[in-house]
Specification:
Elements (H helix, E strand, L loop, with lengths): L2 E7 H11 L3 E7 L12 H8 L3 E4 L6 H9 L7 E2 L7 E2 L22 E2 L6 H18 L4 H27 L7 E4 L5 H7 L2 E3 L12 H13 L4 E5 L5 H10 L2 E6 L14 H16 L5
Parallel strand pairs: 1-2, 1-3, 3-4, 7-8, 7-9, 9-10
Antiparallel strand pairs: 5-6
Helix pairs in contact: 1-4, 2-3, 4-5, 5-9
The chain binds zinc ion.
Zinc ion (ZN) binds next to loops.
Amino acid sequence: QALEVATSFSILGDLVAQVGGERVKVRTLVGPDEDAHAFQPRPSDARGIGSAAVVVVNGLGFDDWMTRLARAGGFQGKVVVASEGISTLEMSREDGHGHDHGHDHGKDTGKAVDPHAWQDVANVRRYVANIAAALAAADPQGAATYRAAAARYDGELQALDAEIRAAFAALPAERRKVVSSHAAFGYFARAYDIRFLSPVGVANNAEPTAKGVAGLIRQLAAEKVPAVFIENIADPRLIERIRSESGAVVGGTLYSDALSKADGPAPSYVRMMRANLATLQKALAAPER
Ligand code: ZN
């Protein structure tokens, strides 16, 4: 009988499936192209999670609702925090998002920790190790299988990380900046040295201020940002407005907080990172003369 594992969002669901393979049955609350920041659980969701053998969350304030839901459903085990042990990133005003930190990130410490750690492949290697350890603890008979799957997948992640670095290596400094809807790419920016500006902060649920958007449009022009990007989980209208007011080019769609559906270009974590890389590379390549 398969080990039942509940996860909060699609990217995490894929990581658990990569490690767990046929031994696990993964139930994911927030599906492809859906926004986990804005997720409103139904009472029936709690019942489904309460009976899971393992509950895996991202942590860092991204999906606290998942832990509350699991407890409400009667789950008594230890909730696995996939991001445990990563080097976290604090939000800075530098990232250009035009609203105050009125949302609940980091309310315990007074600092805003960026939860989007999966946008750095090195962090996801840690996620995978944490998931493998948790599955092995819950299902000791499968421990060797989980370890082997995690090792194989870790090799894939290492290659992916190297591929992204190599692809961006030739990009000149003045092309290394973009605008996306919400501040989801801080870890990507740190790892791969691409600067992201966003009208909306990390939580993706605050309305950007008019002043913030106007400031961003000025910055875009002043710094000659090559392209702006829509996100798969965000309303494209804000980016469309920024495009029309700044004259910037829309470089395509980036996958920030969710995978695509199975027939889309980003149905798994590895394919999501490759899809984002291809989209960024195309838009940021120096223009032909
Ligand atoms: Zn987000």
